[in-house]
Amino acid sequence: MSIGNGSMSRILVLYYSQTGNTEKMANAIVEGARNVANTEVDIEYHVDVDDLNRFDAIVVGVATYHHDMPIDVKNLFEEAAKKGKSLKGKTGAAFGSYGWTGEAPKLVLEIMKNKFEMHVTEPPLLARYTPDQNTLNMCRELGKRVSETLIHQA
Ligand SMILES: Cc1cc2nc3c(=O)[nH]c(=O)nc-3n(C[C@H](O)[C@H](O)[C@H](O)COP(=O)(O)O)c2cc1C
After folding, report:
1. What digits encode the pLDDT tens for the residues 105-150?
2. Nearest protein CA to atom 4 of ligand 1, as residue
């Protein structure tokens, strides 16, 4: 139950993970974000472009495959741009597991910042292969930081 008359902040954690590494990060981010009062967190591996405007913050988890972000994320941004969806001023963050180059989360942040004029947290949070305890703690911190940012905006 929420306390006081503050409105709920809504955070979307959208992630794509083939072997579970980025998924572990996503779960830790959700844990951190849910520890903050008046915060509602949705964790999804697919969203419709029309649902994006329901959220105050969009946190995207992408593993890097072939130096790129997953096609689903590309399509989501592509569609949002075509439909003229405004994400301006929303909070954005990106994270992901990688093996040797890890450019996918950086690409996501670039699009959020340059195309959609979102407020992004840089640099992205990366884990080499399976995230260790230290990285999972950084994920929890990121989740907490994103939800606290929203409180201060309200
Ligand atoms: C076919 C294939 C291509 C990959 N390409 C890249 C790459 O270009 N750059 C990189 O940093 N890691 C690359 N990786 C490593 C993955 O990013 C790494 O295994 C990561 O932990 C996968 O995360 P996930 O478990 O969330 O899917 C590749 C892995 C596979 C199997």
Report:
1. 999 999 999 999 999 999 999 999 999 999 999 999 999 999 999 9
2. 65
| pLDDT band at residue 151 under the 50/70/90 scheme | confident
Q: Is the CB of 137 under 6 A from ligand 1?
A: no
Instruction: Give 28 Cα–ligand 1 centroid separation in angstroms.
Output: 20
Closest atom, ligand 1, to C-alpha of 67? 8
- Residue 18 CA: nearest ligand 1 atom is 27
Q: What is the pLDDT of residues 58-71, one digit of tens each?
A: 999 999 999 999 99
- Ligand 1 proximity of 27 Cβ (cutoff 6 Å): no
Instruction: Give me the pLDDT at residue 154, please.
Output: 64
Ligand 1 mean position, distance from CA 139 (Å): 19
Q: Is 123 in the pocket of ligand 1 (CB under 6 A)?
A: no
SS3 letters across the chain: CCCCCCCCEEEEEEEECCCCHHHHHHHHHHHHHHCCCCEEEEEECCCCHHHHHHCCEEEEEECCECCECCHHHHHHHHHHHHCCCCCCCCEEEEEEEECCCCCHHHHHHHHHHHHCCCEECCCCEEEECCCCHHHHHHHHHHHHHHHHHHHHHC
Structure confidence at residue 2 (pLDDT): 40
